[in-house]
Amino acid sequence: MGARVEEFAVAIDVGGTKMAAGIVDATGTITERRITPTPPGADAEALFSALTRIVRELDASRAVVCGIGCGGPMSEQGRLVSPINIDGWHNFPLGARIAELTGLPTFVDNDAKALALAEGSWGAAVGKRHYIAMVVSTGIGGGIVLDGRLLDGEDGNAGHIGHVIVEPGGRTCGCGAQGCLEAEASGTALAALTGTTAEDADLSLRERTGQLVGRGVASVANLLDLRLAVVAGSVALGFGEPFFRSAQQEIERLTHLDFSRGTVIRPAGLGAEGPLLGGAAVGWRGLGRPMGMFT
Ligand SMILES: [Zn+2]
User: Fold this and answer.
1) How crowded is the C-beta side of 10, counted as CA atoms within 13 Å?
2) In the chain, is it the N or the C terminus that has fewer CB atoms within a 10 Å radius of its CB?
3) How many angstroms separate the alpha carbon of residue 226 from the centre of ligand 1?
4) Helix, strand or coil for residue 66?
5) Is pLDDT at 70 greater than 70 in this prediction?
6) How much is the mean pLDDT over the chain?
7) Three-class SS state of 154
8) Residue 1: is its pLDDT beyond 60?
9) What is the DSSP letter of 261?
């Protein structure tokens, strides 16, 4: 049976500072939305009840699926989540618990992979079969679509561009390696480097951050034969034009293969709605629906 426009998804986005839940129709329109702060330092059950509270407020009567975008990493293709920025959840069975609550088929994926699906369905990558979507924010994540399919990998963690090395011998990353993109260009890294917030970054720091992101994207373009990066996240979008110009220049400096030349980096298209639409897209994918079925 084909999908119908009047079908709805319960969409959930779980982040380190806030959790959001909403109702999204199959064309990517958010019809209802609730947001709550992620309780800092809370244990697993307190976190889950904060999320439960906003999910219960939704009118899910016409929903056929629930999709969740959650910070990584995760294991067993999303069955267990251990978000790096939420200490209370380690190997937490988020999908199963939400399925119990809603009675809906429920699917969980990494939030950056979720964004990749949403950007391909309704955003800046509509109609593209090969691209990377990135979030450059407190941390740095990514999701890769190749041949029209989102890459999963062994445990569901494919696309972690935040841990591509961009400065050999550089800062030590939370993962234990040195010079990872996340250790050099994330909001957390910038705060540690400058002792101030990303909002106060001067022009040279904005440009350097863009340059490092461009360096990571160039490696991905050369590796995977893709030519488009769409970038969301408070650091990238907040830094704006200097960030994207420097990233583009670095990509052009480092992509010289016939197939990688011409790689373009640009802002993601969905703005603040991206994370929740990402959750919905995870749900539709779980049901086997193609990306952008009603764009
Ligand atoms: Zn790392």
Assistant:
1) 28
2) N
3) 23
4) strand
5) yes
6) 94
7) coil
8) no
9) T
Reported confidence tier of residue 63, pLDDT bands at 50, 70, 90? very high
Residues at Cβ < 5 Å from ligand 1 ion: 163, 173, 175, 177, 180
User: Model pTM greater than 0.85?
Assistant: yes
* pLDDT at 234 exceeding the cut of 70: yes
Residue 41, number of CB atoms within 10 A of its CB: 9
Has residue 181 got a pLDDT over 50? yes
Q: Which amino acid would we find at residue 162?
A: G
Return left, alpha or beta for 253; rule: phi > 0 is left, psi -120 to 50 is alpha, else beta: alpha
Residue-level pLDDT at 4: 64
Question: 26-29 long-range contacts, Cβ below 8 Å, gap at least 24?
Answer: 26/284, 26/289, 26/293, 26/294, 27/122, 27/294, 27/295, 28/118, 28/121, 28/122, 28/277, 28/280, 28/294, 28/295
Could you tell me which of 231, 236, 222 has the C-alpha nearest to residue 266? 231
DSSP state, 118? H
